[in-house]
Amino acid sequence: AQRVTQPEKLLSVFKGAPVELKCNYSYSGSPELFWYVQYSRQRLQLLLRHISRESIKGFTADLNKGETSFHLKKPFAQEEDSAMYYCAPCREGTSGSRLTFGEGTQLTVNP
Amino acid sequence: DAGVIQSPRHEVTEMGQEVTLRCKPISGHDYLFWYRQTMMRGLELLIYFNNNVPIDDSGMPEDRFSAKMPNASFSTLKIQPSEPRDSAVYFCASSLAPLGAGGDSPLHFGNGTRLTVT
Q1: Chain A partners within 8 Å of B107 (Cβ)
Q2: For the segment A27-54, what is each residue's pLDDT rounded down to a tens digit?
Q3: Three-class DSSP labels, B44-87
């Protein structure tokens, strides 16, 4: 079955430390992958997409087709990065494309 | 634009009652999605519409759930009868274009409706 896995429900780091939020997918082919973020009291919003190869708020994510992973990384975490992060592959199907979210990782950056 | 608007923000109801959640997508967005968020299962896609037509409802849990989109600016998600296990945050989202390959439009989410069924 096609699925996306975020193995850590909770992740806690100290300010200034590197952070990596893991995401593994089992989709066949070349799915397009996204990271969405939900800050406290804010709407869920797009953080970045792999196809654009951009860095947003210091975060990057590299698609590793060999490992079927799309881990989100930031070299120096900030307190304002504390949020819920969702990895989301886009699956193309006969009924159109759909975005499926992982279970999410709650990141807490401690001062 | 005020973004995707959902109502109510909170809903508390008793088991067996009918619940209707409402969503107004961003004007001009042709795609509308309903998601459910729980601690155990994260964000699950329930159903999505394209140009008011339901495209994929395979995520709808059971017949107690139904969704409609009578026009481009309004959609409802109805649960009848509601059960305690339906308690969750329900999100509506819209997008301008198809997602994925060839599409260049992110999902815009509403603030969600927190449903509690006692």
Answers
A1: 36, 44, 46, 99
A2: 776 678 889 999 998 889 989 887 777 7
A3: EEEEEEECCEEEECCCCCCCCEEEEEEECCEEEEEECCCCHHHC
